[in-house]
Amino acid sequence: LIMALIRSKGSLLTVANTLTLRCDAKQVEPRFLELDALLRQSPTNRLNDYLPEPFAKGKQPSYIEDPQDSEYAFVVSTLAVQPLQINSTNCRFTSLEFYKSVGNARQLKDGDVVLTMDGGTSIGKAAVFDKAKFAASLDIDPEDVYATVDSHVAILRPRGISPLALAYLLASPIGQLQFQRAESGASGQTAVSEDDVRYFRFPKFSPTALEAAVASLQNALTAANEQVKAAEAQQKAAWAKFETSLG
Question: Which helix (H) or strand (E) covers residue 219, if one does?
């Protein structure tokens, strides 16, 4: 019987360059070492430079299953936050009284970035809150939209870069790798901390260059989404033609 011994090799210097000083085997996986090599090629920015306010993580609300005529607020949960978008139809409800009790910091405003920070594969989803867009998707008046987040979602308010730029950085392959590297905890109950996210690094950029890149990416993603919808329509038509031909 031959047994193979698998070992990973790291260094104290590598550990010292991480905020959490972790020395578990995950930190030296090839994908993370490749990320380190990429970030060493040029100067970097840390997200902390653009997040002067503490993260506002939500409080766990008392839910209302059917608000009917009562005054209510929306709760943006992990389920409602999708990559780069908020699915308003997946939001739950709480009382307007609870919404007022959580304080101004936890009340969603236009331009707030919501970020999922708990829950295994749900970690690292970011989107920008837009009250008008949120209301339009539900066919209600924007003045009737009051929204907060639950305890698994944090509100980030950047300065020096736009909210959309922050959301794109978090959603980028470099950002997602850093979420995967930072998450810790029991299986299925992992989380990232505020300190972890603040320590995220990206190739150094000027605000002007970043916003130009954001505009370009936004156009490219819009075009890609249109192509996806067109492809889905073609598939649907192809199946319909197939089923029709059977008769």
Answer: helix 207-246
Answer with the residue of higher pLDDT: 14 or 152.
152
SS (H, E, C) 50-83: HCCCCCEECCCCCEECCCCCCCEEEEECCCCEEC
| Per-residue tokens: 133 | 């867009």
Residue 211: both structure tokens together: 């916003």
Distance CA 69, CA 49 (A): 44
| Average of per-residue pLDDT across 17-27 | 62
- String of DSSP letters for 96-135: HHHHHHT-GGGB--TTPEEEE-BSGGGTT-EEE--HHHHH
**Dist. CA 245–CA 177, nearest whole Å:** 47
Q: For residue 76, list its beta bridge partners.
A: 149
Euclidean distance between CA atoms 117 and 170, whole angstroms: 12
Structure tokens at 111: 């331009």
CB atoms within 10 A of CB 104: 8
Q: Tokens at residue 140, please?
A: 């209600």
How do residues 68-124 score in pLDDT, each as one tens digit? 767 899 999 999 999 999 999 999 999 999 999 999 999 999 999 999 999 778 899
- pLDDT tens, residue by residue, 149-189: 999 999 999 999 999 999 999 999 999 999 999 988 776 67
Report pTM: 0.84
> Does residue 19 contact residue 110 with C-beta atoms inside 8 Å?
no
102, 59 in Cβ contact below 8 A?
yes
